[in-house]
Amino acid sequence: MTLPNIPRPGLDLEYPMSLGVYDRYEQAQQVVDYLSDNEFAVQNMAIVGTELRSIERVTGRLTRGKAAIASAASGAWMGLFIGLAFALFGKGNQLGFIITVVVFGALFGLIWSQIGFSAITRGGTRDFSSVSQVVATKYEVLVEHRFAERARELLAAMPGNRGAFGVESG
Questions:
Q1: What is the C-alpha separation between 13 and 55, in angstroms, rounded?
Q2: Is 17 in contact with 142 (CB distance < 8 Å)?
Q3: Could you list the mean pLDDT of each consecutive 10-residue stretch along the chain, which spans 170 residues?
């Protein structure tokens, strides 16, 4: 199935040309900043992260107790939020209502975490916690073709810029 070519204002460049490929985002950012400082129309540029990598950082062992505590606390916070929102418009014993909703939220979070923990860790296949992130390993600076020559002229005078003209920098 082919997706329609829907214009994305601000993200698409008309016939983009490469000004350089950099190992770090900060290097690509410096190029754009330099051009901006020299009155270049930087709205005709883009920094594109390439060679994407998925990194999963293991943060610890996941136990039934840790899952229960974290989910109960999360449920209690949600209960507090809901309790406060309803207590603003209610009559009678608002404090009792808030406490009841917090307790029910914590219990719901605790029970739900145990169901989820049993489903995820069946057979010991996923008994650790982690955070995931997708990061680029290269950053390419692109410019619309009609502005490429001017950008290259300005970058030729940039102190320490070895990554201009599509050459990788180190």
A1: 29
A2: yes
A3: 53 88 95 96 94 93 86 93 87 85 94 84 72 95 95 92 48
Q: Helix, strand or coil for residue 63?
A: coil
Asked if 85 and 103 sit in the same domain, the reply is: yes
pTM value is 0.59
Strand order from edge to edge, sheet including 45-61: 16-22, 128-144, 45-61
**Whole-number Å distance between alpha carbons of 83 and 76:** 10
121 and 140 co-located in one domain: no
User: What is the C-alpha separation between 138 and 23, in angstroms, rounded?
Assistant: 5
Domain count, the chain: 2
pLDDT at residue 160, rounded to an integer? 80
Question: In this structure, are residues 138 and 145 in contact, taking their beta carbons and an 8 Å threshold?
Answer: no
113 DSSP assignment: H
Provide the residue range defining the domain that includes 85.
63-126
